[in-house]
Amino acid sequence: MLWQPGALACAGAPSLSTDGLIAPTPVPIGAAQFTAPFSSVTVTFDLDAEGRPFSITGTAEPRARFYALDIMPALRASRFAGSGPRTGCTLTYTPEVLGIADAPLKVLARYGVAQRARLERQIWERFAEGDCHSEKRLAPLQIAYPDWRKIERRVGDPKWTYVRYDVDTGGVPVNLATVLSSGDPALDAEAQRAVAESRYAGGPRTGCVRMWWQGPETVPVALPESPVGNPACEIDDRWERAPRLTYPRPYQSRAIEGWAALRFDVAPWGEIGAVEVIEAQPSSEFGDAAIAVLRAAKFKPLDTGLKGCVDRVSFRIRKDAGEEAAGDLLSPAD
Prior knowledge:
By secondary structure, the chain is α+β, with helices and mostly antiparallel strands.
């Protein structure tokens, strides 16, 4: 399923160009799920001075929301150059359901990246005709890889490329060609070199396809000053069950950072309740994720309960750990 964007409008600008809009990732959907048409999804947001969306919120029925998890992350990763700053922007996405036989190859290619190349045979055969995916699997003797140092990451969106090749009787890849790519010549060249230097046993074969992808560069978010709440809540040794950060998966996939400021109360026995979001950036979904983090935690028992506690959960991509997501949990000193 695809989510097709409509017209972009902001306060004082009824029509703006959608150049720079990143499309949400195609979503698999079975025939059993499509018992009735899905509703559209509308998002509201502002644009900063660089034209990047923030303060993103969305409305969708529960059934559609499950299949629309990448709409707000993809929007945050977008950048409408020359459009910002703007307020009161809206964009409506309409669902479109396509079968494998009808979907454009570029849509299937993007779907393959999201699925980490775990694709049905009929999709591979749409990329390249041959016997490579119908005969017994080739045995890899030597697998080369692209030199990722030569390829610059793209902010908020992965780069990818699909290389078609045959394998001769000696196990050497021949007749290499880039079938589809996100348009980075350096990645295309490195991927072809890696395929050419690989070796296989069990051939010959025709119509083989190898896909390579590179994760996105981080979309950072500015942290405001630490929120102010009840000073009595600032207890050094406060956790009986410490909060554990779970990074929202769609945002982690696009390396998008965020934060949420929360207000909450604590019962004398340590349970946390009355949790509300004061503010969340760059989207309301970071507020939802922060509530889940806090509700799973517990203070140590207290003499009396606490009211009006305020703290912040920060979701950040750890630079020294590759693509790993990390975060600062309820750290007022951050």
